[in-house]
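Worked example 3. Consider a protein that binds nicotinamide-adenine-dinucleotide.
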Amino acid sequence: MFINGEWVESHSGHKREILNPYNQEVIAVVTEGDHEDARRAIAAARQAFDQGEWRNTPANIRGRLVLKVAELIERDKEELAELETLDTGKTIIESRADMDDIAEVFRYFAGLADKDGGETINSPIPNSKSRIVREPVGVCGQITPWNYPLLQAAWKLAPALAAGNTLIIKPSEITPLTTIKVTELMEEAGIPKGVVNLILGPGATAGYELAINKNVDLISFTGGLETGRKIMKAASENFKKIALELGGKNPNIIFADCDFETAVDQALNAVYFHGGQVCSAGARLIVEDTIHDQFVEALVERVKRIQLGNGFDDTTQSGPLISKEHREQVEYYVALGKQEGAKLVAGGERPKDPTLQNGFFFLPTIFTECDTNMRIVQEEVFGPVLTVECFSSEEEAIMLANDSIYGLAGAVWTNNITKAERVVSELRMGTVWINDYHPYFAQAPWGGYKQSGIGRELGKLGLEEYTEVKHVFQNLQPKPVDWFK
Ligand code: NAD
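Given these inputs, the predicted complex is written out as structure tokens:
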């Protein structure tokens, strides 16, 4: 762990083995912290913030240091990508793409650091000046999940630093390796002591302390709904600011007048990318009835060809699921789908290939004849499981797509652009793609409507999350008001 500029072991001396989900080999042993270690890290971040060196560093200089981190990530990109593939099982091609995105996120927020010089207000009071300034929030706790370990960390680290905050980051206990490495890079870049602190350990102890501790001013969390609920409750202890990026059960709407081949191809990508362990996965396919059978047939044919395997092999298109527990959770949902009456038309089991038996693999799965009231349709499986629903009118497509507690992302496929725009304006979600699936980038905000979260990451809004707004009013001719004569 990295606390107050020092690399340290946990106070308890506990350790954790980190497993490669492809073969269950131990790839690292890391120190395992708890709430006590979190308190030490919070104290260091508090002291660094209050002492003021970082927040008083001119914003352009802070930007330069954040840019330096981007350059170091670029330099060590291959090592970082290999670590991410070892730790998560995702393909090395995906990990390399993640690292490109991560460097870009640091570059973007480095560039934004000195762009907002505040705002002057037209004061209605004569002989006065009024302005708005943005200031850092203070000490930020940041908690990240295992599916995109470093990408999710970058979305939090880069804006927090650019805005002049101090922070404590806690990666998922099962995928800490790339966050450890990037903390080394932030140290190498010259971010001052105490500004960045890294703690390792389970959510219930090390993570929870960040949410409940009164010396933390903002908690930013990416992860599941139930954890988000606990964090929100804990954050109410001192009404700290909260930013929550939670789950999704995202609709992918296919109209009959779409480009059929492209829509089939991208529907696969939408749901099976990274084994479906993506918050924005297009896990709910909603297809117009006139092409339903043909579309499903094409999907089933293509799904059989998806190559599972070692993320380091060139032929692998999808790796294993993250853990034994997570695969069991996916299996629970597949059994549930069958019980609820959905029709299993592909996958639904572990692969039989003998070379995959040591990894947490699960076959890409499709359920048809799904009904919007089924739990398999409503709940986030976070695995390679697609449900297919059928619609016969635009209104029905919109109704099915919006029938969810979530509102993270979704897509519409049609060559009728006015219809696309009509549908998009009715969809209740933070990101909507027209004739595409998955694009996201540093310049555009990311976040959810409804129970998919609170606040936005990335884009200008992603920086604003890490700022407080101060109104400064100056009287140019002070004189008594004589109210209490
Ligand atoms: P999780 O909620 O189990 O864990 C996420 C993080 O929270 C981990 O670091 C964990 O240690 C920590 N944590 C667990 N319990 C805690 C507690 N009581 N107090 C404080 N911290 C605690 O989620 P996960 O299984 O790691 O990730 C999968 C989930 O993340 C999915 O629901 C997915 O949709 C969501 N996700 C959302 C986005 C998004 O942008 N909206 C992105 C990626 C993942």
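Take a moment to read the result before moving on. The radius of gyration is 24 Å. The chain has two domains: 2-246+452-472, 251-434.
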